[in-house]
Amino acid sequence: MDTTDIAASGRSFSKGLGFRKSLMTLAASVMLATSAQAATPSTDEVNTTGLAVTDDTVTVGILHSITGTMAISEIGSVQAEKLAIDQINASGGVLGRQIDFVQEDGASDWPTFAEKSRKLLRQDNVAAIFGAWTSASRKAVLPVMEQYNGMLYYPTFYEGLEQSPNVVYTGQEATQQILASLNWAAETKGAKSFYLLGSDYIWPRTSNKIARKHIEDKLGLKVSGEEYYPLGHTQFNSVINKIKLKKPDVIFASVVGGSNVAFYKQMKAAGIDFTDEKPLLLTISVTEDEIRGIGGENVDGIYASMKYFQSLDNANNEEFVAAFKEAYGDDMVIGDVTQAAYLGPWLWKAAVEKAGSFDIDKIREEFAGIEFKKAPEGYVRIHENHHLWSKTRIGQAQTDGQYKVVFETEELMEPDPFPEGYQ
Amino acid sequence: MFDGYTSSELMSIFAMQGFAGLSLFSVFVLMALGLTIIFGQMGVINMAHGEFMILGAYTTYLTSGFFQSYLPGLFGGYFFIAMILAFLVCAALGALVEWLMIRHLYHRPLDTLLATWGLSLIMQQAYRSIFGAREVGVDLPQWMLGAFNVTDLVQLPINGLFVMIIALSIAVGLYLLMYRSGYGRKVRAVVQNRPMAEAVGINSAGIDRATFALGCGIAGVAGAAFTMIGSTGPSSGQAYIVDTFLVVVFGGAQSLIGTIVSAFGISQAQSTMEFFLSGSMAKVLTLLVVIGILMLRPEGLMALKVRR
């Protein structure tokens, strides 16, 4: 789906919302007449800080890139957040109010993200913002959220080393994604040596730092190489030669974006067959979304460490996938971050209802322990450090572009954004 | 830096890296030749060169889809058809662009830079609207996927060899066209002295259009070749354009031979350094060396002698 489609679906969506709103008003007046009004608390009670809350609506913000280089990744998140809002509205809204949203385009440009978040908080007075994707865009938005006391629900797996009273992190921080998967490779696959490979920016470098510490100090195994290539790099022949020569048991890959297409095609062309698992490739950056561009036959047999795969076999996920495809088309695929974005509006709703108020300060008191039992990934709970407890899963890529889950941690992993001894 | 490798391993390393360098070299040659022709013969800096490459790549993508749906039996050979189509589509668009836009700007070389940059943005947005913002994957026929095993360590990817053959054929073809054909003589005549060339009856406007179309067509073939090794997305063209300009400027912007020499130098240097240093560091060092040499030879490696 391209950006114009997104805009169009946004428009038709808000038209639908308008219609539903008038239905709601009708329903509300009927309810008034039958004096069953008690369910909806008065606006003065639930909003003491001037947020955009009326007797029947509450406004939130969606802030992602729908243009520019990051649109490829962020469009899935926008779709998921709109779907969640739509579903919440259909089930009666939040504190008896329908959710209205204002969507802004961060345009893959970090200053624009900061500007638009300021606009959403100061001008639209939104009660929550669902958005940002790259760490750079989050870091740009963060000071604005803290200055005006907004609340951001951030969906991407990321490098950790951050915790803000104004952000809820619905993706995994680094240890949740990495440690369990390295343990799995060592224990189940008997891996002895690891080759770390990534794109050259903060997330892969921090992730590999944590991975190296864990491999060398905790597992007592060997890192046989560590390598970074510029974003957008398309020639991987040299590193493929190095890998052939050093014969690591595991290639631990955090190459991002279009580079992945070149990387996996050239691996395959160089005669490396991942279904042999010699070497085994473990990625933390290739979701179902990326596979669409890389081509299933080029990634056949690789392993990915995520918390969510579209193929997860549980009732919540079945419903979620069906609803997502109904809303956006049968050929849609759902990646890890898209699911994490879907959690945002639901967790916000749970927190608002637990606090009995839209006020950010009151909600913040209630975050710890909030759970969402209908999460497509199974079940999630918010930790007091504003990250989620979640399971780490390993999936093996199939030629059809889907992952088959081969491992999951028994327990939810505790989020640890400042891992001791790993920095 | 050579620690930990046995001498036989070092031999393999140099063999493999030499080959990796040659693949990179052919990629550079494919990218840069179209740009060199247009700049060298017409003085136009085509900022939309990367987008023409991507047009070739999308043409290949469509052709592969067509063969899969309607002619699955002939899928093994679709790539040759795709290359021809890519050349024709890009050349046709190139001719159209020259007629609509470029020919009005010949007296203002800096404006062609702006105009073609605008064109590149328009083309990118068009790809985004037509094909979507996500990258598309192009399936390759089975015979193109494997590798020749020379020794245990040294393997030559078939698609790498194939890109090399394409690059070589185009370079030789271009040389013959420019230096051994009537068309080439006319092009060179127009470049050297436009009024005189017109006086002897050469249609200089037609030569301009054909040359621009030729450069764009070669970009299209390059794009078709790149679907074998890289990604195809609306903004992938930008990933190539910096390297392309680097090669062209370093080689001496007017010279076909200079372009080839510079592509060879840069690719081998980068490939060898990539093995012993990190990927990012290799790129930085390559850039530093290029800048250093350009400070000594501002006209590039093989500048034509021009009268001032």
TrEMBL record, chain A:
Kindly give the SUPFAM superfamilies that the UniProt entry links to this protein: Periplasmic binding protein-like I
From which residue to which does the signal peptide run?
Answer: 1-38
Which keywords fit this entry according to its UniProt record? Signal
Recorded superkingdom: Bacteria
PANTHER family the UniProt entry points to: ALIPHATIC AMIDASE EXPRESSION-REGULATING PROTEIN (PTHR47628:SF1), PTHR47628
Q: What is this protein called?
A: Urea ABC transporter substrate-binding protein
Automatic annotation (TrEMBL), chain B:
Which compartments is it annotated to reside in? Cell inner membrane
Report what the protein is called: Urea ABC transporter permease subunit UrtB
Q: What GO molecular function annotations does the UniProt record carry, in alphabetical order? A: transmembrane transporter activity
Q: Which gene encodes it?
A: urtB
Q: Which UniProt keywords apply?
A: Amino-acid transport, Cell membrane, Membrane, Transmembrane, Transmembrane helix, Transport
GO BP, sorted A to Z? amino acid transport
Protein family per UniProt:
Belongs to the binding-protein-dependent transport system permease family. LivHM subfamily.
**Stored CDD domains:** TM_PBP1_LivH_like (cd06582)
